[in-house]
Amino acid sequence: MERLQKVMAEAGVASRRASEKLIATGHVQVNGQTVTTLGTKVAAKDKIEVDGVPLHREKQVYYLLNKPRGVISSAHDEKGRRTVVDILREDEIEERIYPVGRLDYDTTGLLLLTNDGALANKMMHPKFAVDKTYVAKVKGLISNDDLKQLRTGVKVDGRRTKPAKTRLKDTDREKKTSIVQLTIHEGHYHQVKRMLAAVGHPVIKLHRESYGFLNLQGVQPGDYRELRPEEVKRLNRL
């Protein structure tokens, strides 16, 4: 269920605020009944009309992308840089999709894109605690004490992060670098980079390898696939 004004805005009728005015002034009908109450929620099966004209609602679509480096996690970019949505549009996908959360410009890995606002909001909300697993190449040789700090939480901007799951994957004593796997369910700005910097190991490269139960098996960098119906149902149950 989604708020009526949000559905109208996503369908391109008007902005959310202008849609609220249309509702309040009696221009909108749901299942043949005029609705004037702001905040009314509608389901996908509901028939919505504006001044008698049926509302066209896009089919909800869900894609998993293996984001390459040097691409913006946004639907558009003011500087004209390539975005994750541009990658899918090259194959003439017409739905107005947008990424679920963000990966930095130089971060690679798993990113979901959809036009299902309700699911996107749930997945990004901290209370649902969806695990995200990253692999980071960092400067320095990570110690057990460093890993323990990450597992108990570190201070970032005066706030202690939630405990993370960690695993040391490899070290290069000659180059003095380490590769560590980190699983978190928070999604604050530059979270993984700042957590690792807080224990003295700045990130050189960062890759997200999984999101919840989803992974990148069979999806090469820059490629994507549509989620299967059972995967979408499973995401909604998370």
Automatic annotation (TrEMBL):
<dbReference type="InterPro" id="IPR020103">
    <property type="entry name" value="PsdUridine_synth_cat_dom_sf"/>
</dbReference>
<dbReference type="InterPro" id="IPR006145">
    <property type="entry name" value="PsdUridine_synth_RsuA/RluA"/>
</dbReference>
<protein>
    <recommendedName>
        <fullName>Pseudouridine synthase</fullName>
        <ecNumber>5.4.99.-</ecNumber>
    </recommendedName>
</protein>
<dbReference type="Pfam" id="PF00849">
    <property type="entry name" value="PseudoU_synth_2"/>
</dbReference>
<dbReference type="InterPro" id="IPR000748">
    <property type="entry name" value="PsdUridine_synth_RsuA/RluB/E/F"/>
</dbReference>
<dbReference type="GO" id="GO:0016853">
    <property type="term" value="F:isomerase activity"/>
</dbReference>
<dbReference type="InterPro" id="IPR020094">
    <property type="entry name" value="TruA/RsuA/RluB/E/F_N"/>
</dbReference>
<dbReference type="InterPro" id="IPR042092">
    <property type="entry name" value="PsdUridine_s_RsuA/RluB/E/F_cat"/>
</dbReference>
<feature type="domain" description="RNA-binding S4">
    <location>
        <begin position="2"/>
        <end position="59"/>
    </location>
</feature>
<dbReference type="InterPro" id="IPR002942">
    <property type="entry name" value="S4_RNA-bd"/>
</dbReference>
<comment type="similarity">
    <text>Belongs to the pseudouridine synthase RsuA family.</text>
</comment>
<dbReference type="InterPro" id="IPR036986">
    <property type="entry name" value="S4_RNA-bd_sf"/>
</dbReference>
<keyword id="KW-0413">Isomerase</keyword>
<dbReference type="Pfam" id="PF01479">
    <property type="entry name" value="S4"/>
</dbReference>
<keyword id="KW-0694">RNA-binding</keyword>
<dbReference type="InterPro" id="IPR050343">
    <property type="entry name" value="RsuA_PseudoU_synthase"/>
</dbReference>
<dbReference type="InterPro" id="IPR018496">
    <property type="entry name" value="PsdUridine_synth_RsuA/RluB_CS"/>
</dbReference>
